[in-house]
Structures are given as structure tokens and as C-alpha cells.
Amino acid sequence: MSTGSKHSNHAQERALSQDVRLLPLAFAGLAGAWASLHAGRAAVRWAGTALAWVAVAAATAGASWAVKRMRPERAVARTAAVAAAIFIGWAWAGCLHRGVAEPEAMAHAYGKTAKAEATAVGRADRAGERCSVLARPSRIDAGGAMRLSVHVRISIVGVPCDVLGGQKVSAVGKLVKPPPGARQSGTLYARTVAVSGRGSAVSRTVARIDAALEKVLADAPEHARGLIPGVALGRDDAVEPDLASAMKMTQLTHLIAVSGGHVSILLSLVILGFGRRRLAATAAVCFLSVLALLALVGPQASVIRAAAMGTVVVLALGIGRASQAVPSLSTAVLGVALIDPWLAVSYGFLLSASATLGIVCFAEPLTARLAAKAPRLLAELVAVPLVAQLACLPVLALFTDTGSIWGVPANMLVAPVVAPLTVCGLATALASPIFPWLAEAALVPSAMATWWIERVATTLAKWPGSGIGLLASFAFCLVLLAALIARKALGFVVVAALVAVTWWTGRRAPIEIADGWEVVQCDVGQGSGLLARVRGKTIMVDVGPQGKAAAECVEAAGVEKIDILVLTHGHSDHIGGLPEVLKTADVGQVWVSPNMDPEGNKRWLEAELKRTGHKPTIVSQGKVDDPDAPRVRVIWPRANAPAGAEQANAQSVAVLVDIPGGMLVTGDQGRESQERFVREVEPVRIAVVPHHGSSDQSERLARAADAKIAFISVGENSYGHPSRRAFELYSSADVYDTKSCGTIVVAGSEVASRCEGPRG
User: Fold this and answer.
1) How many whole angstroms separate alpha carbon 629 and alpha carbon 536?
2) pLDDT at 289 over 70
3) Which residues face 737 on adjacent strands?
4) Is the dihedral of CA 168, 173, 177, 179 positive or negative?
5) Cα distances (Å, whole numbers) of residue 423 to 227, 253, 353
6) How far apart are CA 222 and CA 227, in angstroms?
7) From CA 361, how far away is CA 16, in angstroms rounded?
């Protein structure tokens, strides 16, 4: 037997020798928590729990019996333990959900104006110009004070963006019931907010670090300004939208989330510095370091998993026992699921746990197998991202249907700079408030690393093979795996052929928007942007999210003047691209809804229009444009549209455009508001499906429109858009969605997109 084969066998033996007894219990607890929290109705919860119970128990019993050749009575006992874990997860999560997220004391307050006295929990989250914070209420008054558990949390929307954890927040506004499975007990859309107190010492320290880091990065390149806070601290709000999209396409998004790599580097540095002689002292320092990291970056799902796993390892170190990765991961997952069951429905947590499990179980055997054919470093660079990508597929399938063949190569290319960037990025952040000169010195290698990551992401995202179906991406990884472990020559031939075929089949020239276009549904990602030409004039409805996507579509269509720009409502995915569109084309009239909340977005929009010399026109049902412009009839909302951010979607502008055959263009209306204007709708040739194809659709509206062609403007998202229900309701039409088909062009009877035909 060759040396390479011996190493491979030893690696496989080490992987198989992992103690997996806790693994079924961990995933059983997650399954129970998921079943309890994910569904809204009790019957569905019970059904989901029962199915998970049976499936996991049967699989555990079968695996135990087959692999371990366990006696039947032990297999039965193992199965019973798994079933008990599922039940505990379900019961615990259910109790918390009913007692914390849906407290009976608040039931009468939903939909009413309430005054809340609360303490901010953590930092504020920014959405456009509007910020929200999770808070622990001490008192909520909506016509009567409520007695609340200390575990109750509410989200307060409309707070100052610099609010700190530990500060007191007094807010008055409408209290809205949370969606099913949400952690908070409700959302308060504040009309008035008062903030007092200094906040906690930890929050003030973190805020000081953030402010100092922002100052140090002020003159840095754009990729450094976005990626250094992302990689070092998990702050992803500064990443430029095009770069964020490219990183998502090439499976590099995990780089801007603090995870196990950060914890591993931190613990390694502590152990290296303190040594292994005084295990208890070293373990204590490791534990405090993990807590400090958690306080610095905040309670992100991936870092919670990593911190919990690191804590288990530290405890094992402190008592002088060797720790294995799988038992540590299982203990961490089970503990976190019991402490905070809402992590069971967190895609970030599930992705982190799945990737870690795949790496610790299969990366070493595959590395050893590949090391017999190539240098070990190269083998490890291939094995780790490949097994991680394969392990994450079940979770990815829950919220996306697209993938890329370049995920593994992209991670291979950036791997050498990730650890240096993490260390230097953290050094830049931590040194910035005390030693700015040291932060600026650490910034130099950090910026070089971020430049490389940007180059890799943006280049590979444009190559054929990005944006293919998730199953196709998974199949590619499986074939790649088979080719790598096959004979060297055969493997090389298979990989080369696979890449060549994928490249050739993935080659799609960008859609040429010919001069004779009639309607263009622009691919702007998760947002909306549409162009229509009527009687020699141009109308545009919405301008997509922040970035250049909508402007590039306008330019590609050869539009120099937009006669009417309709902004359906004030959400960022519909108005964020306005500055770039205004730079690209002359804009005449700007139509807006009577409700352009949230308030922060409304103020930003007003300022942007004022800066460019545009005065918006508030439109409502019955509005008809000037005779010399294309005929556009507003059918929703009514003039007395209610204000408030919670009503923004419902009060989106909907218009009928007088192209041949007619076109219905909607915003983000839900079923209830759709049915309020359904009487105004007539059969049309083209319809834009409301709210990115969400499941909250009116059957009456779909029937009244009776469209021949239906567009769904949608991108990568975690909301389940487009839904199966949307495709079913518009099944009589040729349905195209921009996530799958890119930009869609209608010219006469012809429809052009990167899809060979309609999706439904």
C-alpha cells in the first residue's frame, strides 16, 4: 500500500472515530424547535413535529444498527432519546413562543397607538435612512398598562441611528403584531422618540471603536471601507451593493460574517501566548476573549455558534480533557437551541452549523485523498470549500434556487488572504481609538487583501456558470468531487470537460434591447424597475435598490428622457436607485404615493428630488396624465391613504398603462389592498405580479387582469419570493421572473430574456 493511501485511510479512520452520539440529539432539538416556531397554526406545528420525530428517529435507529451493529434494544433506546430531544425542543420553543413572542397581555394592543418605555438591547439596525432597535419594554400603555415578562422584546422603528444598547427609549406609535415565528412580541412604529441615558459600558466602547474605525477608513478605497468592517466585525452595511451581489453569487458572503475562523484565530493566539502548562488559567483567558469578541461584534448567528462551540472546547481544555469537533458542535447546537430556539429558524445559524459539520467530518479525509495527487496545501484549499458547499445545500434550498460553479474556486483564491485580513482588520479596528498610527499601518495589508477579494468576486460573478440553478451547482460539485478522487488522469479530463461544458452552455450574451422595444422589465435584483414606451413617450415605474442596475437598464434601452417616473412607495428596493437614474436620463414628472413612509426614506427622497430640481406630484385613484404624455391611469391608492410605515406596502401606487393590450403595474400591495382596487382592473396583455411574487396574492386580481404575460421582479432573498402561489394564480399567463430570466424585453409579440421560454 502506498504512503498516500495509508495517510488517506488514517484520515478516514480519524473522521469516522468522531463521537457522533450527541449529533442526532442536537439536530433533533433543532427539528423540534423549527417545527414549533416555523408554523403559525397549532395543527401544522404538531404535524411538522410528528414528521420530524419519525424521520430523525428512524434514521438514527437505522444508522445506529447498520453502522455500529448495535443491538436492537440499544437502537431503540437511542431512538427514544432522539424523540425526547425533539419533544423537548418543540415544547420549550413552543412555551417561549407563546409566552414571550405572543404574550396574552399585549393581544388587545395590536393595531392601537401605544406608549412604550423600554431599554435598548444592542445597537440600532439601519434600513436606508431609517433605523430600528430591539428593546426590552418595562412598560407598554395602550389604554391600560400591561404586565410583561422580563423576556419580552419589541422592535422600535424610527429611533436615532446612534442609539446604544442600555439606553432608555420612550416611544409613542402604532403597535403591530409580529409575524409568525418572530422573536419579538411586536413592532412599534414610532411617531415620537426620546432617548436618555449613556448606555452600557460595552455599548459605548463598541460605538467608540466603530467611530474611530470609520475615521481611519475615510480616505481608504471603497472595497476597504466596506470589507474591513465586514470581515473584522461583521458590519455588512458599508459593502457596496454591486460587490455584495458579486460576493453572494460566488459564495463569498460568509467572509463578512464573524464565524468560527475568528474564534479559532483568537483562541490560537491566546493559547500560543499563555501556553498549555496552566490549563485552567489559559481556559479562563480564552473564555473571556470569546466573551469580548461576542460583545464587540454583536449576537450574529454564526458567531453565537462559534462562540458556543469555542466555549465547549475551552471547558474541555480547562479540565484537561481532549475535545472532539463533532461533540463540541453538537453540544453547542443543542445548548444554543435550548437557550434561544429562534436560532433554529435562522438561516445564518443553520448554514454555519452545516458548513462546520461538513468540514470537521469530511474535509480531512478528502484532503488526505487529494494530497496523494497534489501538494497538501492545494488539497486543503480544494477540500474545505467543496465539502462546506455540499453540506450547506439542504439549507440553501430553503431560501434560494440559484448557485454558481465558481464558489469553490472563489474560496480557494481568497483563502490565503482571509486569516491575514482577519488579524490585520481586527488590529485596525481595535487600535483605531487609541493608536491611530498603528491602525493606519495595519490598514495597508488589509486594503491589499480586500482588493484581491473584490477582484475575485467581481470577475468570477461575470463568468458563465454564475446564476445557474442550485441543483445544477450541486451536481457540478458532486461530479467535481468524483473526478478529484478518481485516478489522476481521468479526474483531470473529467474536470476539464465539465468546466468546458458548463462554460459553453452558460454563455449567454447580454440581452440586446433593440430600438423597437415596448416594455422592459429591468433586472435590478431584489427590487423593481420597469420601462414602458407609449406614443413615443417613456414611463418608468420604480428604480430598484441602491446601485447602478436600474440606470444601466435605462442606458441599455437607449432612454435619454423619462417623461413620467412613478415611485410606487418609499421602500429602499423601489427608490434606492434614484440618484443613478437621475444622472442617466432627464426626468420630467415624478409621481409618488400619498404614503411614502418610512419617514427616513421619505426625507431622503425629498432631499434627493429637491437637490436635482424635481418636485414630486402626489397621485391617487383616478389620476390621468396630460394628453401629450402617455396615458397612465392611477387606480390605487385613494387620496385619503393612511400614513405610517406599516401601511407603506398597502398604499403602493398601482397604474394601468395604455400600451397595446394594456398593462397593469403594481407595487408591494398584499391581498387585502389588491382586492380594494380589483374593480378598477380590466383584462390586460401584461401584468406585473404584486410584491415580487409573494404568497399574499389576490385570486380575484389575477382573474380580473387575465394577463397573457406576467412579470415577477425579484432577486436573491430570504422571503420565499417568488412563491408557488404566485405562479399558480398567474398560470394562464406566460410568467417570467427576473431572478431566473434577467432583464425581460417585450417588442410586439416577441419576448426576449435569457430564459428559453416562460417559467410558468
Assistant:
1) 9
2) yes
3) 712
4) negative
5) 13, 18, 23
6) 9
7) 8
Distance in angstroms (rounded) separating the CA atoms of residues 702 and 733? 10
Instruction: Name the CA radius of gyration of the chain, rounded.
Output: 27
Phi, psi of 710 (to 5 degrees): -130, 135
What count of Cα atoms within 13 Å lies in the side-chain half-sphere of residue 183?
A: 14
Report which secondary-structure segment, H or E, holds 565.
Answer: strand 561-567
Contacting residues for 270 by C-beta, under 8 A, at least 6 apart: 282, 285, 286, 289
> Is residue 509 very low, low, confident or very high in pLDDT (cuts 50, 70, 90)?
very low
User: pLDDT tens digit string along 398-418?
Assistant: 655 566 777 788 888 888 888
What pLDDT sits at residue 48? 45
Q: How many CB atoms lie within 10 A of CB 749?
A: 8
Adjacent-strand bridge partners of 529: 543
**DSSP-derived secondary structure for 446-490:** HHHHHHHHHHHHHHHHHSTTEEEEHHHHHHHHHHHHHHHHS-HHH
What is each CA distance from 506 to 11, 404, 481, 491, 523, in whole angstroms? Answer: 37, 11, 21, 22, 18
Q: How far apart are CA 348 and CA 351, in angstroms?
A: 5
Question: Burial level of 67, CB count in 10 A (0-12/13-18/19+)?
Answer: exposed
- Determine the Cα–Cα distance for residues 295 and 182; give it in Å rounded to an integer: 23
Average pLDDT over residues 571-588: 92
519-752 matches 104-199 in CATH topology: no
**pLDDT above 60 for 243:** yes
Architecture field, domain 104-199:
Beta Barrel (2.40)
Burial class (CB in 10 A: 0-12, 13-18, 19+), 147: exposed
Which residue, among 338, 324, 328, has the nearest Cα to 306 in the 3D structure?
Answer: 328
Domain residue ranges of the chain, discontinuous segments joined by +: 3-101, 104-199, 207-505, 519-752
Q: Is the pTM higher than 0.70?
A: no
Quick check: 64 pLDDT over 60?
no
Block residue for cell numbers 414606451: 533
Interval 130-154: pLDDT, tens: 688 888 888 888 877 666 666 678 8
At the fourth CATH level, the homologous superfamily of domain 519-752 is Ribonuclease Z/Hydroxyacylglutathione hydrolase-like (3.60.15.10)
Q: Which helix (H) or strand (E) holds 354?
A: helix 347-358
- Give the angle 222-225-231 at the CA atoms, nearest 5°: 125
Residues 681/665, Cβ–Cβ less than 8 Å: no
Under 8 Å between Cβ of 421 and 452: no
Q: How far apart are CA 687 and CA 702, in angstroms?
A: 9
